[in-house]
Amino acid sequence: MPGSPLISAHELHGLLETGSGIRLLDVRYRLDKPDGRDDYRAGHLPDAVYVDMDTELATHGAPSEGRHPLPSRETLQDAARRWGLNAGDTVVVYDDYRSVSAARAWWLLRGAGVAGVRVLDGGLSAWRSAGFPLETGAVSPERGSIAFDDLDEGISIDDAAAWPQRGVLLDARAPERYRGESEPYDPVAGHIPGAVNLPADAVLDGQGFASPAAIRSAFESVGVSELTHVAAYCGSGLTAAHTALAGATAGLEVAVYPGSWSQWSNTPDRPVAIGAQPGV
User: Fold this and answer.
1) Is there a smaller number of Cβ atoms within 10 Å at the N or the C end of the chain?
2) Which domains are assigned to the chain?
3) Set 234, 238, 245, 254: catalytic member
């Protein structure tokens, strides 16, 4: 797909073979193992730089800010310079689990004005399955000089509350969490009133993304069209960026609510809906 934010393992390998100067970022992160440095050192794409989710793509704050508050512009810029980024660089980000954490890096960098940023479809699994080489150890590039004038901060908690009146608010969590039957991470179960459920699985095909047509069909199944104002949230803001990436793959613009359910459920007096219906 022309202009796709995704890149296949074979396409990436071909570009790297030509010495294209692509900057590779390894965003290894999981809830059960937030620090992915050991896994990164054990095997990563050649010349890929490790990116830390908790200190570079997020910050720490009060529970009312959510579990993954956005970094400041200065923090992200300093991190990007550590990764060796310069103005005009083409960047490819990847991870080892369904591109969820890679999507956070993609969304932040795109929102900071990095036009040439893409995500390796299928991540590390796709690269390995294609038989392409890995490298061990850590990569420390020469410090870059990229400058960010601004940072897309997504939509606010008040924007999210009002969004169903102007468009479609997507909840990207698992159906049982949306319905309020299970909540393993946050203090309250349920969903934002008016939100509809579009789990991340609906836009995936294995570890990679489904086809643009299949993704568009998934969005359409919950009321999204080309004319719809769409926003997404999840538990902590990461999978919401993944939904935005899926939307971009299908030619749809999706705003992100970074605070997501972790912020909403930690904010007193915010209403909660339960069950399979959006609620009011």
Assistant:
1) C
2) 6-129 (3.40.250.10), 157-264 (3.40.250.10)
3) 234
